[in-house]
Amino acid sequence: MTWLITGGAGYIGAHVVRSMTEAGEQAVVYDDLSTGIAARVPEGVPLVEGSTLDRAALDRAIAEHGVTGVVHLAAKKQVGESVEQPLRYYHENMEGLRTLLEAVVEGGVGSFVFSSSAAVYGMPDVDLVTEDTPCAPMNPYGETKLAGEWLVRAVGHTHGLATASLRYFNVAGAAAPELADTGVFNIVPMVFERLTAGEPPRIFGDDYATPDGTCVRDYIHVSDLADAHVVAARKLAQSPGKDLTLNIGRGEGVSVREMIDLINEITGYGIAPQVDPRRPGDPARVVAAADRISAELGWKARHDVRDMVTSAWAGWVRLHPEAARS
Ligand SMILES: NC(=O)c1ccc[n+]([C@@H]2O[C@H](COP(=O)([O-])OP(=O)(O)OC[C@H]3O[C@@H](n4cnc5c(N)ncnc54)[C@H](O)[C@@H]3O)[C@@H](O)[C@H]2O)c1
Question: Separation of 154 CA from ligand 1 center, angstroms?
Fold first, then answer.
């Protein structure tokens, strides 16, 4: 098998490339480098610079590299930006996916793994979110992921493509400091940014119906997430016509306050958080039921939240050496 990894120069994509190649799979990265970094692509893995909106470039990449499977991570992913620029998000994420799927069908590719998100669930009112929990995304980003899943499944059924939509919960950590997330859109880097500026980390609302009043989320180490792609990809390669939708989480809730306490401990900063008003659209609790992926693929997360924060901090200090506390 040769796997085309779209978005393979991105934070998660680079980890997927690493896991796939370490597992002995052939990988080719396809990325427009809009948020990706070419240096994240390991030596020996070809990097094709192109957009998922460019059908001719996709056709060429699939033919020239003999691509037999695709892992599609390339997308725009900022929720707030998607509210401000819905047309751009639908264009990049939906039209990009549609164009890619056309090239996949024409090119005779047999397997397709799609990066989806827990954002498809919106504000679920359940203790553990199963894949059958009704989906009700709250923003254009989440909508493009849900509609993307529908398109992937429909094309799979009609054209005999084995497909998997992987719904990532809150991704954190790094397999190596140079692969760390360079964006500041998730809680871990946001807290790092505040602490290293000497400011208190922010908690948005501490009056939720949760044990300590702050929002509860399910965090997953990016290395575990990447390994889940390897097992999903291999399963599809052996199971023509397969159609999977799977949560990727740990099934364990961690509150915002617990996360900030842990980050304060690991970084050595120890700055007490400040409590600000709730943000609109933040659900109280979103924690995955992780049984289906374990039953279908035998996959289970291995890293805990401490590993995530420690490895993310090593990546942060690499970019901001002045942040380190000796
Ligand atoms: N980071 C998270 O917590 C999270 C959670 C759920 C789902 N996801 C999904 O995982 C995927 C990867 O996210 P990430 O965190 O690595 O983000 P990222 O921005 O680091 O990676 C996205 C990559 O895709 C490339 N790209 C974007 N648009 C493209 C296009 N039209 N054509 C070709 N390449 C394009 C970028 O250059 C970048 O390398 C996305 O689909 C995202 O929606 C991420």
Answer: 23
